[in-house]
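User: My instructor asked us to take a sequence, write out its structure as tokens, and then describe one feature of it. I'm not sure where to start. Here is the sequence I was given:
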Amino acid sequence: MSVYETKIARLDGTGNPFEDVLGKVTLLVNVASKCGLTPQYSAMQKLHADLSAKGFSVLGVPCNQFMGQEPGNAQEIQEFCSTTYGIDFPLSEKVDVNGDARHALYTTLTTSPDAEGYTGDIRWNFEKFLIGRNGEVVARFGPQVEPDAPEVLAAITSALG
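Assistant: Let's start with the prediction itself. The structure tokens for your sequence are:
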């Protein structure tokens, strides 16, 4: 199933952020504003800016399940992202990525293995899924893997064709 068929709202509550990335190669990342990994936003924005003309996008999915590191409301999250990191890639509504209230998007994503074969629950903020133009997961990367790490860039390049 294409993740692009999943119903999820944009951060501002309007429409579906998948409308913004449909047919693009997308790095989908669960994000948080108060995490030690939050500086990854810089590399995510640079990738988005550098590769958008080739049909690439980043999509941030705010989540507050890991030590309450995304406590803000939609307006606070948007303001933090734009003023601190200059983020202009799409952001979805804040969702749960694990547990009983896990969003349907993550029910699909968590079945995809990473390079070590790990499937299952999201381990922390900034876990990354590379989605192909057809909406299917082509790669999964752990939270500590930087968005511009060689293995991520290689997967993006391959998916872009």
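For the description part of your assignment, you could build on this observation: The domain at 3-160 is CATH 3.40.30.10 (Glutaredoxin). Try explaining in your own words what that tells you about the chain.
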